Amino acid sequence: MFDTTVVSFPGLGIGEITINKVAFTVPIFGGLEVRWYGILLTLGIMAGFFYAVYRAKFEGFTTDDVIDYAIVTVFLAIIGARTYYVLTTLDEGLYHSFYDVIAIWEGGIAMYGSIIGGAIGLLVVSYFKKFKKEKIIKIFDMVAPGVMLGQIIGRWGNFVNGEAHGIATSESFFLRMGLFEYGKWTYYHPTFLYESLWNLVGFSLITAFYKKKKFDGQIVLSYLAWYGFGRMFIEGLRTDSLYIGVFRISQVVGFLCFVICTALLVWMLMRKKRELLDTEDYTPVYEKSRRTTVYTREKRQAIQEAEADIDAIIEGAKHKEEKENGKAD
Predict the structure, then answer these.
(1) C-alpha distances in angstroms, 237 versus 88, 165, 168, 318?
(2) Is the CB of residue 227 less than 8 Å from the CB of residue 260?
(3) What does pTM read for this prediction?
(4) Least confident stretch, 88-92, 103-107, 200-204
(5) In whole angstroms, what is the distance from residue 276 CA to residue 33 CA?
(6) 45: confidence class by pLDDT, cuts 50, 70, 90
C-alpha cells in the first residue's frame, strides 16, 4: 500500500497535490501511525455527537442521555460496519483467521453496516433506559442529521486514501479527479465528492425544517429517503461496490430505503393532515354546499309565503273598500 496519494482536479483549476496518508506517528509500540482517514472518521463521529447534543433539548433529552447513547452506539456502529463488509465479501477468500476478520485498521468497512449497528445501539440503550416508543422515535430524529454530518466529513477520508472513486471518465469532464497511479494519470468520477455534496444539501434542508416537522420520525425517514436516493445513483458509478450476484448491494439497499421511507413519509403526512382537520371546528365543502341549498330553498319559500300574505292583505283591503263604497251608495 502506498503511503501517499497524488491527486488533481484539472477542471476546477486544482493542479497536482501530494497527500500523505499518515498524519503523524506516535513513538510507541515501535511507531504507531495515525492516518488521516482515521482522523476524519473521528471528526465525523464527534460532529454527529455535538449535533445530537444541540438537538437534545428540543426533543426532551439531556446531554447525559446523549453521552450514554454515544458510548454504545459508536461501538456497535463500528462493529456493524466491519461485520457488514465481512459478510458481503466472504466469497473473496480474504479471511483465513479471526485476526483477518477483525483487522479493521487494514481497511474494509461499509456505511450501511454502521447505520444498522448504530440503530441497534440506540434501541439497546433505550431498552435499558425504559423509554417508551414515542421517546425512542425522537432519539432517531435527533441522531439522524448528525449521522449525515458524519458522512459528509468521513467521505473525505476516502479522498485522502485515493479510494471509493467512480469509473474512469474523459479528460473533458469538468469534475474529473485525476489519480497518478503506476506512472500515469487516470481520471475518475469523484464519487466521494458527489456523496459528500449530496449529503450536505440534504443536511441543510433537514436542519432548516427540523423544528417544523409534523410528526416524530419524520426526520429519520427524510434522512433515509434522501440518502438512499442519492446513494442509489452514486453507487452505480463506484468501482469498489459489494455485490450479491449481479446486484450492487448498496444500490439495492438505497433503492429500498428511498421507496419505503418516501411512502411512509407521504402516508404519515396525510394521516397527520386528516387528524388536524378532525380536531378543527369546520364545515366540509359538501356540507356547506348542502346547507347553502337548504338555506336558499327555505328563503324562497318564506318569500313566497310573505308574498301570499301581502296579496291576502291587499285583497282584504279591496273587499273592505268595496263594501264601504256599497253602503255609501
Answers:
(1) 19, 8, 9, 99
(2) no
(3) 0.80
(4) 103-107
(5) 58
(6) very high
